[in-house]
Amino acid sequence: MWKLAGWSGVKPPAQNGKFVGTVSKLLPNGSAFVTCPDVVSTHGYEAFVNPNTMKVCSLAQGEVVAFNIHLVAGKPQMLAPCWKRSMTAAAEAAAAAASAVNARAGGD
Q1: In terms of C-beta density within 10 A (0-12 exposed, 13-18 middle, 19 or more buried), how is residue 34 classed?
Q2: How many other C-beta atoms can be found within 10 angstroms of the C-beta atom of residue 92?
Q3: Is the pTM of this model over 0.90?
Q4: Residue 4: CA atoms inside 13 Å, Cβ hemisphere, count?
Q5: Nearest to residue 62, comparing CAs of 98, 29, 90, 38?
Q6: Quick check: 20 and 36 in contact, CB under 8 A?
């Protein structure tokens, strides 16, 4: 199941995401990249996600997203909105438990 994220509510998205990938390579400035073989084979680079898109879509490393891109200086950049793959209730409980264990251990 997919959940729309980062939609402004003004203009409905034209289509579901053309590409599917995993949010990865978080950078200190809040941006990231999406690992997606289809984007790399088409454009030669992974899709960049700017900090604003990360924020409005509430993205986290490891999330699977369906997304559209535009090219900036010839390189693919993910657009908002995107569609996040929803976790099952069991997966959400496991993620919450792992997060709680990590917090108790002093991790982020």
Answers
A1: buried
A2: 11
A3: no
A4: 9
A5: 98
A6: yes
Residue 84 amino acid letter: K
Over its C-alpha atoms, the chain yields an Rg (Å, rounded) of 15
How many angstroms separate the CA atoms of 8 and 98, rounded? 32
What does the pLDDT look like over 4-16, one tens digit per residue? 898 887 877 767 7
3-state secondary structure labels for all residues of the chain:
CEEEECCCCCCCCCCCCCEEEEEECCCCCCCEEEECHHHHHHHCCCEEECHHHHHHCCCCCCCEEEECEEEECCEEEECCCEEEECCCHHHHHHHHHHHHHHHHCCCC
